[in-house]
Amino acid sequence: MNHQQSQQLFSEALQYFPGGVSSPVRAFRSVGGTPIFMESGKGCHITDVDGNTYIDFCCSWGPLILGHAPDVVLQKLYEAMQKGTSFGTPSAYELALGKLIVDNNRFIEKIRFVSSGTEAVMSAIRLARGYTQRDKILKFEGCYHGHADSLLVKAGSGLVTFGISSSAGVPQSVADSTIVVALNDEAAVRQAFAENPDIAAIIIEPIPANNGLLVQNRDYLAFLRQICNENGALLIFDEVISGFRVGFEGAAGYYDIAPDLVTYGKIIGGGLPVGAYGGSKTLMSYIAPDGPVYQAGTLSGNPMAMAAGIAQLSTCLSKGFYEQLEQKTAQWIANLNQHCESHGYPCYFMHIGSIFWIVFSQDHTAIRAAEQIDASSMQYFRTFYHALLERGVYLGPSGYEVGFVSAAHTTNDLVQAQQAIETALSVVFS
Question: Is 256 among the residues known to form the active site?
Answer without folding.
Answer: no
